[in-house]
Amino acid sequence: MFSKSNCQNNRASFIALKKVVGEFKPFKLEIAIILILGLVISAIQPISVKLSQRIIDEIQKGSFIQGAFFKQVPVLLIGVFLISGFAKYFHNTLRRYVSEKVIIKYRTLLFEKYLTFPLSVLDKTRAGDFLSNLQNDLGKISTGIDTLILVLKEPFTFIGLLGAAFYCDWRLALSTLIVAPIVALLFSRSGSAVKRYSHKNLETFSDLMSISQESISGARVVKVFQLEKPLLTKFKTIQNSYFNVFMKSIKVEELATPVVEFIGAILIAGVIIYGGYRASLGLLTPGQLVGFIIAIGLAQMPLKQLNNAYLKLKTAEAAAERIHTILDTEPKNKPIEGIERIGDLKNKITFNNVGLFYDDKPALSCLSFEVNRGDCIAFVGHSGSGKSSIVNLLPRLYEISAGEILFDGVAISKFLLSDLRNLISFVTQDTFLFNDSLLENIRYGNPNATEKEVKLAAEQAHCIDFISKLKEGFHTRIGDRGVCLSGGERQRVAIARAFLRASPILVLDEATSSLDSQSEAIVQDAMEELIQGKTTFMVAHRLSTIRKANHIFVMDQGKIIESGTHDSLIKTEGIYRQFYERQQGNCYQRNEILI
């Protein structure tokens, strides 16, 4: 008797498989052709059995043998196998075409789903899980689909061979069916075990992909802290777990085939004994007996194919459940698309009692302030004080938990997301560049930009000096995350991207905090050109970069504790002044600071 959890799992399995099968609908014609070709292929073996029986019976006639029949046999054989060859070619080609098209759709849906997940979900998702879904899980589903289509013909082959056996001797054929319940039980038990192991293996493979991806992405940290041995030990532990479960699954799969063969051998042995007895009584001709034995022997092959297919389908079923769990997920706090259009910021941005929670942990509390069009405002404070959280709310990378943010008096939740995000450009501390050419990395700011516009943006961002030194110039590939460039060069590429985007609102999130003084000076010059005429939000660690801001907000534990201009804030005995003195190395006395 099934437990409640088992029932729920079976229901989920059925739904997942039903959805996979539903993807075949656009290929009804191809599936129909595959079935017809499968019938043609399936008919070959029963025809061969009948032909073998006829040949043996004719030979038994001795001097009464029909010579015309043996003249027809070669032509018949060539014709049969020529038809069979063509049928197999088109059957296999169409089968693999349908299988790959379905997987391409799944791969696209999965990638699209990940792209639509909000940051609140992606922050908790391992990259290795995503890679495992795309590679391993879809690979299992692909094998399952391919196997499913392949074995559509096997029941017809089995029925055809069983029909040939019944034609030879129905009593003998009926007696062989006593093994059917044993074979069905074997299928069921082995399939359940394989699915259980497959679930565990797919999860463990995700762990393998995660540790591999993290070790490669964090190669510098790995080498500096000499993490090679502990990471290798962890990798081996996970891999051993994967291997052990994998071998359990393999043992079940590989045991099923010899068991089926052994049952078949016992069956054929019984057929020979009983069939020989009937032949001795003249109730069976030698041709009928041989034909029957051939039919029963050949019937084992589709049974083995069906068993192997069933086991692969159980693995695919486990993978399908994982994939559809992702595809069917509607995460909490997913941005709800607005309907109003916005093309520019005309007057001001208003934060009205804005609050933000990360998993019930407060990040921002009761923030209220206004930013006029064209103003440059800055946020400073200790790490974790909420500075970056504020600017992440502007393009709705995270959804506010309380209050509202207004653009020209309209809540940002009412705008089309695409319109809202077109208004905003980001330059962050952790500049992300793709493993593509410099030209394309800058063009991501505006995918419709011409090469001339891209180069102009690069010039505005002071990129030409280092790009001109590269062998392939703008067409140089810059490696994963722009590893072939220095930190300052990566920041200038990000600024060029922002120039090209030409958005009225600009976010600079600690854009120079990790640069040396020389690189910072170059990047700072580029940023000063970039912010001209834009409404700018700056998150700063180095206070020297925000001295010209119209307004500075000092953050602590998600709240604004001080605000004002640079000059007004250093005249007070507050947190900002402490930050400033600390960065100045406590070299100045109070009267020197006021000068």
CATH H level, superfamily name of the largest domain = ABC transporter type 1, transmembrane domain
CATH class division of the largest domain: Mainly Alpha
Strand arrangement, largest sheet? 6-7-8-3-9-10
Structural class category? alpha/beta
Globular, elongated, flat, extended or rod-shaped: what is the shape? elongated
CATH fold call of the largest domain: ABC transporter transmembrane region fold
Distance between the ends: 85 Å
Helix content: 55-70%
Count of helix runs: 21
Total DSSP E strands: 10
Task: Give the gist of this structure.
The protein has 595 residues and is of the alpha/beta class. Helices cover 62% and strands 11% of the residues. α5 runs antiparallel to α8, α15 (451-460) crosses α17 and α17 (487-501) packs parallel to α18 (517-530).
Account of the protein in words:
This protein has 2 domains: 4-327, ABC transporter transmembrane region fold (Up-down Bundle), CATH 1.20.1560.10; 344-423 and 508-514 and 537-595, Rossmann fold. The model is unreliable at 1-10 and 586-595 (pLDDT under 50). The protein is elongated, with a radius of gyration of 36 Å. The chain contains 21 helices and 10 strands. The relative contact order is 0.08. The chain is of the alpha/beta class. The longest helix is centred in the middle third of the chain and has 53 residues, at 228-280. The strands form 2 sheets. A 6-stranded mixed β-sheet has the order 6-7-8-3-9-10, with helices on both faces. The protein has helices spanning 4-22, 28-59, 67-116, 119-122, 127-150, 154-168, 170-176, 180-217, 219-224, 228-280, 286-327, 387-393, 417-422, 438-443, 451-460, 464-467, 487-501, 517-530, 566-570, 575-583, 590-593; strands spanning 348-358, 361-372, 376-381, 402-407, 410-411, 424-428, 505-509, 535-539, 551-556, 559-564. A hairpin with a 2-residue loop joins β1 and β2. α2 (28-59) runs antiparallel to α3 (67-116), α2 runs parallel beside α6 and α6 packs antiparallel against α11.
